[in-house]
Amino acid sequence: MIQLHENEHMVLLLHKHWFVVARTVLGIVFLIILLAAALLLLPFLTDRLDPDLASAATGLGLAIYLMMVALFAFFSWMDYYLDMWIVTEKRIIDVEQRGLFSREVSEIPIASVQDVTVEVHGIVQTMLGFGTIKIQTAGEREFTIDEIPHLAAVKDAILNYAHQQFEATQKTTI
After folding, report:
1. Closest residue by Cα to residue 137 from 170, 166, 108, 96
2. Contact, 129 vs 119, CB < 8 A?
């Protein structure tokens, strides 16, 4: 998928924090509980209908509902798994999956990094240790990495490699 340049090595591969997936899983569990409640109430709602028609409609509705929940779960997992940030010693690559057949890949040279800001909002992010990293570049472009874990380690790695790249360019110009 992503081709690294010659003599370039991946330093970090980042995905969103597991809590992001946990929120989705809780939503899916809620949808399944909602389905169970609907199935428990269904006999009271269909008692006046023809039993064969009620059974067929229930089966069709159940199949459609379960398919929609499964598709929601699949797209949520796919979005989590395919959204990633790759940090190498030379660049930062942002891979953003947008739907089933659409992907956006952006990159910035790590040598152009000027500032790295870490943002943690709320008690959940503070307790679980995840948040947002904003990377300011020399071209005044901002690169944002949302809901990732290990903020301090990521920030330190990016700044360390940016500093190494800066020193390497200074040695070649002298």
Report:
1. 108
2. no
Residue at 16: amino acid letter: K
Give the model's confidence band at 148: pLDDT under 50 very low, under 70 low, under 90 confident, else very high: very high
What is the per-residue pLDDT across 36-83, written as a single tens digit (0 to 9) for each?
A: 888 888 877 777 778 788 788 888 888 998 999 999 999 888 988 889
Q: Are 126 and 120 in contact, with CB atoms under 8 Å apart?
A: yes
Helix, coil or strand: residue 93: strand
- 120 occurs within a structural domain: yes
Count of beta carbons in the 10 Å neighbourhood of residue 149: 16
**The 84-88 sheet, strands edge to edge:** 10-14, 84-88, 91-97, 103-109
Same domain, 118 and 101: yes
| 66 falls within a domain | yes
In a shared domain, residues 62 and 113? no
Torsion region of 99: left, alpha or beta (phi above 0 gives left; psi -120 to 50 gives alpha): left
User: How far is Cα 174 from Cα 168, in angstroms, rounded to an integer?
Assistant: 10
Tell me, yes or no, if the pTM score tops 0.85.
no
**Statement to judge: residues 110 and 125 lie in one domain:** yes
Query: Does residue 89 sit in the same domain as residue 123?
Result: yes
